[in-house]
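Re: Re: token formats

Sure, here are both.
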Amino acid sequence: MVESLGSIGSLVSSPWIYALVAVSVLLDIFLPVLPSGVLVITAATAAAAGSGAASAGRGPEDVPDILVLTLCAATASVLGDLAVYRLAWRGGPRLDRAIARSRRLSTAQERLGGALARGGGALVVLARFAPAGRSVVSLVAGTAHRRVREFLPWSALAGLAWAAYSVALGYFGGQWLGASWLAAGVSVVALFGAGAGAAYLVRRPTRPSEAS
């Protein structure tokens, strides 16, 4: 029998879930192994149970929780991006040499630098969904000394898109499949699938027409 997530509904309704989500999202740019996306989805799936209870007469207080959860995850994402961006900006020659030795980072620096300069920061948004893509983007933007006004709007859009997508997966998965671990698992698989697709698109070689 699939275990319901309703038992953690009180945690979702408490301020502690927001603090936990914020810390997890903030730190996973330094430790990409942290399951921040899984945590966001699980919280949103549990909130779906509260939404169902509200329709039965308990009140609509659970619905704003979804909005707060989205804004909390998005804000923490941007703050983490800026932290790495500033650290990379001040990294100095040692960091420059480390990037030069890494083919992946060197390629990312070339592609992202040009994209940001041309206003093509959609690549920043796409990379947010790829595994460790957020870390690479922030590191490269800082090392390349891109102006904050070129980087920050795209970082904010990327964080909001990722947070909204993750929350929507958990919430609507809970609505359609029931507030259960099965719903959370399906939503997590969908998030990882989006990450795999984003990673493929980010790593795809740039065509001559795209580079011009």
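Second one below.
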Amino acid sequence: MNCIIIDDEETARVIIEQLCDQVENLYVIESFPNAIQAIKFLNKNDIDLIFLDIHMPDFTGFDFIQTLKNPPKIILTTSDKNFALEAFEYDCIVDYVVKPITLTRFTKSIEKVKVFVNTKPVVKQREITASENTISDTDLYVNIDRRLIKINFLSIAIIEAKGDYIQIKTDTKNYTVHSTLKKIQEKLPDHLFLKVHRSYIINTKKIIDIEDNSVLIGKDVIPVSRSNRPELMKRLNLL
């Protein structure tokens, strides 16, 4: 699901983005400090879900909803418990979550949204499933500057951990992503990629040369740890 966040508090937006990162197949496309900016975005883009604060300067969450002709599903995120009854007068509102938001509570809200998604006609659902399967077999999606970037698996040569970030090196471009090596590895096809060092994952099809405890990929010499070397040799049929 593609989603956006609308909240005038920067800290609240960051927290929701972090929660979204922990839910599989939930992507934050944009994040807005006010409803006016979000309306301009929605006039040109389709979204599955909105995380929406109620109390914002000049234009409240309810004011915002009333401007939408065909609103997507909405989860209200607020510090105020007093608007729950009013909230559910709107068919588009799926849940009402009071801050601070825990991961457990957040996950329950996402499950409610999935119920609505799963009630689509069977034929349409099959079309979506087929499309998603095709994408997951060929592409990696990463969040960079609140944009969802598609990277073809076959173009990826090296993924390197750098503190709280990773660098993805492809045939044509490098991408820096706020993530962990472990999290990215879970999204990669095993037949192409192998973790050869605590800081490196490589595309084994891109190996040019092997020497001692390192491999050459392009112009980069990548270290191979002693514990990972047997698996690499096995993958390359060298054992």
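The chain has eight helices and 15 strands. Residues 122-138 form the longest helix (17 residues).
- S.
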